[in-house]
C-alpha cells in the first residue's frame, strides 16, 4: 500500500456535514471562550466521576445517573459546536462514484433501505452461494495503519493509550478525517449514519428498560468507559502540542466522540497487514453496508490482490437483501457493540456467575478439583439458547459443586483423573445418581431465581413489546430482556427434564458412572476447561444427549490456507495481555468491539477489542 501522502486525496471533497457524518468543515457555531472554560471544568468533574473504581453491586445505576448528569451538562454547553448533518442517502451517489473511480465493481449489489437494519445491500441479480460479489482494495480502507500515517500519527506515537487502544485511535482517525474537507475518505465517511442505536445513545428512560437484565451493568460500564475516555481525550486535545494542528481541538464534543466510537464499534473488522503477519482493525467501505443474519463467515482477505473479497454465504436471489455473518455473538454483544438485538440469533447465550462458597466445608477440595479441570472456583458460565443449553465446563462445575467428600477424594487420587474430569463434562456420565440429581436441581433453582430477579414475566415483556409507540432503543432493551429470560427459562426446563429422566437413563445404561467411563476414555487435549476427547467407546445415544461441543465465542485466529495469498498470523491487537479481558471486567477495562471476517481461509471472529486497565487510563 502506498503512503497516504501519495494517495489521490481530492476525490471526496466535502459533502458538507451529513446525517451520514458530514465532513464538518464549516466553523463551529456558538463556541465561545466562556463555554470552552466551563466545559473544561465539567470535563474534569466527568473524568473524576468516571474514573472511580467499581461501585458496590446495586449502586451502578446511581453512579451512572451521576455520570450522565455531567455528560448532559457538557452536551448542553456544546450545542451548536458542530454542523448539522446532511441526510446520508444524498451522499450515496458520490460514494458509489468514488468506489468506481478506484476500481470497485458494484454491479452485483446496490445500497437500499430495508425495514429492519436500516440501509443494507440488495442483490441486483441472482447471486449464487460462494459467488464473489464485492472486492474492496486495502487502499480504500480506514485502518489503524492509516491512522498512524495520518495527521494523528504524532499523537498516537506519544500517547500510550492511543498506542494500546488501536480502535480508539481508529475512532479518532475517523473523526479527524470527517473534519478534513479534503480527506481522501470523505465520500465514505459522509455515508455513515448520523446517529447510532448503541446504548451510548439511550436516553435515561430507555436505559431503565434494561434494569433487571443480566447485562445491565455491562451497558452502564460501557457508558462509563466512553465518558472517561471522552474526558481524557478532551483534556489531551486542549493541552498536547501534537494536537495543535488537528481539527479535534475544536470539534471534539461528547456527541462526536460517541459517534466516532459507535462508527468503529458497529463497522470494524480485522484485516491482515500487507505482509500478512498481523491483524489490524479496519473499516471496509461498501462491505460494511451488509447487515447481519445467521450463517457463516464468507469474507476473505486476499493478500495477493491486497483486497477484501466478499463471497455470498448463501444464494441471494435478485432483489433480496444480501447479508453477511458478523460472528457467534450473543444478543447482549449485538446490542452493546452493534446497537441491535437479533431475535433469530442461533448463537444467543447469557452469562451466569457461579461460585463455590468459601464457607463450604469442602471449598478447598472443590476448588482444587475445579482448578485441575481448568475452571476457577468462582466464574462466569454461559447458558445457551436452543436444545443444548449447558456447555461442558458448566456441567463439570455443577457436578463438582454437588460432590460429596468421598467422591472428591476419589477424584483427587484417581489414576485416571484427566479422563474422569473430562467425563464430568459429558451428559452421559455422572458421579452418582444422588449427586446427579442434586446438580440438576441446583441449576434449576439457580436459573429460576435469576428469572425471578427480572421482576417481570416473559408474558409481560411480550405484551410490552406489542405497543406500537416504542422507541427503537426501548424495543431493543425489551427484546434483550425477553431473549435472556427465554434462555434462562428454557434452560431451567431442560435442567428439570434432565433431573427427572435420571432413573430412566440409568436403567437404559445411557447414563453411566464417570469413574467407569473414564477407564475407556483417552484424553488427548485439554484447553481452558474445554475438553477435547477421543472417546474409545461412545454411547450410541450420545448425540441425542447433546454432548456436542459448543462453538467457541472468543476471538480465534487459525492458520490460513497455505495458498498463494499466504497465511494469517495471530492478531496484532489480540497479542496484548489485555486482549482476553472481555466485558465481564469492563469496569476496569476499555474495549470497543467489532465484527468478523474470514481471511485466506482463516476464520477470525474479529472482536478486535483492545483493552486497557483503568490505571493506565488514569496515568
Ligand atoms: C456494518 S453496519 C451495516 C450497515 C448499516 N445498516 C447502515 O445503515 O450503515 C451494522 C449496523 O447495521 C444494523 N444491522 C445489521 N444487521 C442487523 C440486523 N440483523 N438487525 C438489525 N439491525 C442490523 C445495526 O445498526 C448495525 O450496527
Describe the secondary structure blueprint for this structure.
Elements: H1 33-50, H2 60-77, H3 92-101, E1 109-114, E2 118-123, E3 132-137, E4 142-143, H4 144-149, H5 153-158, H6 160-164, H7 166-178, H8 186-189, H9 204-208, H10 216-239, H11 248-251, H12 254-267, E5 269-272, E6 279-283, E7 291-292, E8 299-302, E9 307-311, E10 321-324, H13 331-338, E11 349-355, H14 363-372, E12 378-384, H15 392-401, H16 405-413, H17 417-423, E13 429-430, H18 433-452, H19 458-466, H20 472-500, H21 502-507, E14 512-513, H22 514-518, E15 521-527, E16 530-535, E17 597-599, E18 602-604, H23 614-618
Parallel strand pairs: 7-10, 13-14
Antiparallel strand pairs: 1-2, 2-10, 3-9, 4-6, 5-6, 8-9, 11-12, 15-16, 17-18
Helix pairs in contact: 1-2, 1-10, 2-10, 7-12, 14-16, 15-18, 18-20, 19-20
This protein binds S-adenosylmethionine.
Amino acid at each position: 500500500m502506498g503512503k497516504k501522502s501519495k494517495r489521490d486525496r481530492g476525490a471526496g471533497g466535502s459533502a458538507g456535514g451529513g446525517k451520514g457524518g458530514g465532513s464538518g468543515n464549516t466553523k463551529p457555531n456558538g463556541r465561545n471562550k466562556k463555554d470552552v472554560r466551563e466545559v473544561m471544568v465539567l470535563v474534569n468533574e466527568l473524568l473524576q466521576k468516571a474514573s472511580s473504581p467499581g461501585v458496590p453491586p446495586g449502586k451502578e445505576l446511581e453512579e451512572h445517573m451521576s455520570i450522565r448528569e455531567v455528560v448532559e451538562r457538557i452536551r448542553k454547553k456544546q450545542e451548536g459546536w458542530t454542523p448539522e448533518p446532511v441526510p446520508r442517502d444524498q451522499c450515496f451517489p458520490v460514494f458509489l462514484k468514488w468506489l468506481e473511480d478506484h476500481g470497485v465493481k458494484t454491479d452485483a449489489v446496490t445500497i437500499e433501505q430495508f425495514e429492519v437494519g436500516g440501509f443494507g445491500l440488495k442483490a441486483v441479480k441472482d447471486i449464487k452461494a460462494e459467488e464473489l460479489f464485492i472486492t474492496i482494495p486495502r487502499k480504500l480502507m480506514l485502518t489503524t495503519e492509516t491512522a498512524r500515517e495520518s495527521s494523528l500519527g504524532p499523537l498516537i506515537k506519544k500517547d500510550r493509550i492511543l498506542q494500546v487502544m488501536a480502535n480508539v485511535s481508529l475512532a479518532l482517525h475517523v473523526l479527524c478525517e470527517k473534519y478534513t474537507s479534503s480527506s481522501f475518505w470523505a465520500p465514505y465517511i459522509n455515508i455513515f449514519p448520523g446517529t447510532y442505536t448503541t446504548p451510548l445513545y439511550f436516553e435515561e428512560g430507555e436505559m431503565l428498560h434494561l434494569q433487571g437484565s443480566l447485562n445491565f451493568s455491562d451497558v452502564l460500564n460501557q457508558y462509563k468507559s466512553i465518558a472517561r475516555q471522552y474526558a481524557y481525550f478532551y483534556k489531551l486535545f486542549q493541552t498536547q502540542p501534537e494536537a495543535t494542528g488537528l481539527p479535534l481541538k475544536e470539534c471534539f464534543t461528547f456527541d462526536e466522540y460517541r459517534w466516532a466510537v459507535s462508527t468503529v464499534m458497529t463497522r470494524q473488522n480485522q484485516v491482515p497487514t500487507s505482509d500478512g503477519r498481523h491483524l489490524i482493525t479496519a473499516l471496509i467501505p461498501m462491505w460494511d453496508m451488509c447487515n447481519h443474519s445467521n450463517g457463516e463467515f464468507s469474507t476473505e482477505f486476499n493478500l495477493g490482490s491486497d483486497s477484501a473479497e466478499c463471497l455470498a454465504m448463501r444464494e441471494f436471489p435478485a432483489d433480496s437483501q444480501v447479508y453477511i455473518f458478523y460472528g457467534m455473538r450473543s444478543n447482549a454483544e449485538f446490542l452493546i457493540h452493534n446497537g441491535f438485538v437479533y431475535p433469530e440469533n442461533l448463537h444467543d447465550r447469557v452469562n451466569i456467575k457461579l461460585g463455590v462458597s468459601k464457607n463450604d466445608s469442602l471449598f478447598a477440595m472443590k476448588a482444587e478439583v475445579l482448578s485441575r479441570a481448568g475452571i476457577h472456583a468462582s466464574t462466569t458460565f454461559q447458558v445457551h439458547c436452543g436444545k443444548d443449553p449447558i456447555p461442558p465446563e458448566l456441567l463439570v462445575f455443577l457436578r463438582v459443586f454437588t460432590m460429596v467428600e468421598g467422591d472428591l477424594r476419589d477424584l483427587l487420587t484417581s489414576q485416571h483423573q484427566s479422563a474422569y474430569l473430562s467425563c464430568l463434562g459429558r451428559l452421559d456420565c455422572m458421579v452418582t445418581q444422588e449427586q446427579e440429581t442434586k446438580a440438576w436441581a441446583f441449576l434449576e433453582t439457580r436459573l429460576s431465581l435469576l428469572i425471578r430477579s427480572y421482576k417481570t414475566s416473559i408474558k409481560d415483556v411480550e405484551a410490552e413489546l406489542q405497543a406500537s409507540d416504542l422507541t427503537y432503543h426501548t424495543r431493543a432493551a425489551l427484546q434483550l430482556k425477553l431473549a435472556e429470560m427465554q434462555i434462562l427459562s428454557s434452560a431451567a426446563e431442560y435442567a428439570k427434564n434432565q433431573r427427572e429422566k435420571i432413573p430412566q437413563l440409568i436403567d437404559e445404561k445411557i447414563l453411566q458412572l464417570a469413574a467407569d467411563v473414564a477407564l475407556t476414555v483417552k484424553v488427548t487435549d485439554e484447553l481452558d476447561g474445554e475438553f477435547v476427547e477421543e472417546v474409545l467407546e461412545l454411547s450410541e445415544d450420545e448425540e441425542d444427549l447433546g454432548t456436542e461441543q459448543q462453538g467457541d465465542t472468543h476471538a480465534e485466529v487459525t492458520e490460513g490456507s497455505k495458498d498463494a495469498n499466504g497465511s494469517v498470523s495471530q492478531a496484532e491487537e489480540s497479542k496484548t495481555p489485555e486482549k482476553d479481558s472481555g466485558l465481564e471486567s469492563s469496569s476496569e477495562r476499555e474495549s470497543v468491539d467489532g465484527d468478523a471476517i474470514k481471511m485466506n481461509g482463516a476464520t477470525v471472529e474479529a472482536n478486535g477489542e483492545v483493552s486497557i486497565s483503568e490505571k493506565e487510563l488514569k496515568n
